[in-house]
Amino acid sequence: MAQSMAYNSAAGLGGMLKDGHEHYFDDNEGGAVVARSIGAACELSRMLASSLGPQGRCKLVVNHLEKMIVTSDCAAILKEIDVEHPAAKLLEKAVNQQETECGDATNLCLTFAGELLNNTLELMRTMGWKHSTDILEGYHLASQKLLNELLPNICVVKQIGHPSKDTEGLKTVLKPVMGSKQHGTEGVLSELVAEACQIVLKEGFVLQPESIRTVKILGGNVSQSVCIKGFVAQRGVETVMTSAENAKVVVFASGIEASSTEAKGTVLMKNADDLKNYNKTEEAKMDEIIQGIAESGVKVVVSGGNISDMALHFIEKYKLVALRIGSKWELRRLCQATGATALVRLGAPTPDEMGLANVNQRSVGGKTVTVFENDAESKIATLVLRASTSSVLNDLERAVDDGVHAVESACKDGRLVYGGGAAEMECAVLLDQFADQHPGLEQYAIRAFSKSLECVARILAENAGFDALQVVADLRAAHVTGGLDKGVDIVSEPGIASMKDSEIYDLARVKISALKLAVEAATTVLKVDQIIMSKKAGGPKQ
Fold first, then answer.
1. Of the given ranges (150-154, 174-178, 227-231, 276-280), which has the lowest mean pLDDT?
2. Which DSSP letter does residue 57 get?
3. Is residue 206 helix, strand or coil?
4. CB-neighbour burial class of residue 231 (10 A; exposed 0-12, middle 13-18, buried 19+)
5. CA distance linking residue 13 with residue 23, whole number of Å
6. For residue 172, what is the enclosing H or E element?
7. How many angstroms separate the Cα of 416 from the Cα of each of 136, 423, 443?
8. DSSP output for 15-53
9. Alpha helices, DSSP H only, in 81-152?
10. Is the pLDDT of residue 128 over 90?
11. Distances 102 to 32, 105, 421, 457 between C-alpha atoms, Å
């Protein structure tokens, strides 16, 4: 106790903390810690800015397990790299939250936060960090105006119906989302995802992303991908019978085999007849069980564990189809797709416990799969994705996941704003006018916030290979003169086109969420004046 109460005042905070800690602070409150934090956060943002938009570049990441990932998805890249700087970590958490909530616009969140911090650095050089309160107040005013008035009201140009009925509206939402990840194949992918969503979605309900499943099969190309109303198991059946039409399905969570006793037992056999009779009783019992299953009308048996040779013999005898699925998650999805109940007892099911499906075994790209299709309402839809390499397949899966989350957001709020940087540029012009109404120092921060919104158009133009400064200048001029629908055209010169004619829209809910999280992360970084890092746990790393 006496040792812990000893304090060397000359050593300052270092005398109070354990050896190995790190402490960064400013002696004269000049904003050096903030500047260093901004520098780290901007490096992270700058690294991933080139991945924004349909023409965004991919990053090749080799993670700690030496697995190679090739993608332009911001959240996927950040998940695989280890960010250590605490300020950059705050931006990473904002991106992860955006991925969890909306599944899209993660790069917008990171890019805008980085641009806002970079413009703050310029303000610090001009005004000095002693006016930090005015800067933060200006950002607060600008963000409130943007998120509560401009984006939800002024920038909203279209409202789609519920995705279960509005097919065209659904494709309008999906195409830009898919195009930003898989430029050139967004037409095929948006058709597939729209079909899958309408299979499982009911009017008035919100889509559950877990109900859209993806199966990746190497070989072929994206145009060979298909949507199946039901479940696809990535293995063949165990029996000679490989298909059954309109079949009743029973699902066993356990294996189909003779149960063994929990305690050790000894059986005394005095002659050969005892041995024969012992084996016959086991066979008779298994025969009775499989016969009972067959007589209940079941044609397809699915097991969550092993199927013994004896059980398989009797399954073949009664001309049933048997399939083994080792994953309990896959088993649960199969039950959702067929309407069956997973049984823990081995025996004939009741009518309520049976499912219904058309079952057949197929060969896709040299791989054997078993398809459970349901003519009635299915709670599961499966997208069978095809591509030539595993990295493209994984990227397709991420694009589909983003599309499904976009549909989930559209179920909650169908308001749309123009894409291609048009909505951000319109907000930037209106925020400049808003800054004119504030004579105090806050106006400089509001203008810096407004300038930060231009980063979307600038980066889209840069990634498309255009003169970014010229495109931004022309776009701003168009919006000042009332061109609300003008955005960046990534395909042809001069780099500006009508987003209304191109049918490029973004969900207002997703954009508001991304910008809100970006502002919160950036302002949190700006409020930090000291960084205290404890000694890392564990021994020295080799």
1. 276-280
2. P
3. coil
4. buried
5. 8
6. helix 167-181
7. 30, 10, 29
8. GTSPTT-EEE--SS--SHHHHHHHHHHHHHHHHHHTT-S
9. 86-101, 106-127, 132-145
10. no
11. 35, 8, 19, 22
Element (H, E) at 455: helix 455-463
Q: 80-95 as b/e, with b when 16 or more CB fall inside 10 Å?
A: bbebebbbbbbbbebb
- The pLDDT-based confidence of 303 (bands split at 50, 70, 90) is very high
C-alpha dihedral (218, 221, 226, 230), degrees to nearest 10: 10
Evaluated on CA atoms 134, 24, 109, 182, the torsion sign reads: positive
Give the mean pLDDT of 96-106. Answer: 90
Instruction: Give the tens place of pLDDT for each residue, 428-465.
Output: 999 999 998 888 888 999 999 999 999 999 999 998 88
Nearest to 459 by CA among 505, 502, 428, 490: 490
Q: How far apart are CA 493 and CA 487, in angstroms?
A: 12
Q: Annotate 484-523 with three-state secondary structure.
A: CCEEECCCCCCCEEEHHHHCCEEEHHHHHHHHHHHHHHHH
For 317-344, b/e burial (b = at least 16 CB within 10 A) is ebebbbbbbeeeebbbbbbbbbbbebbe
Bridge-based pairing of strands 355-364 and 367-373 is: antiparallel
Per DSSP, helices labelled H in 389-454 are 390-412, 422-435, 442-453
Give the C-alpha distances (Å, rounded to integers) separating 533 from 37, 68, 92, 299: 14, 31, 18, 63
pLDDT in tens, 207-248: 888 889 999 998 888 888 999 888 999 889 998 988 889 889
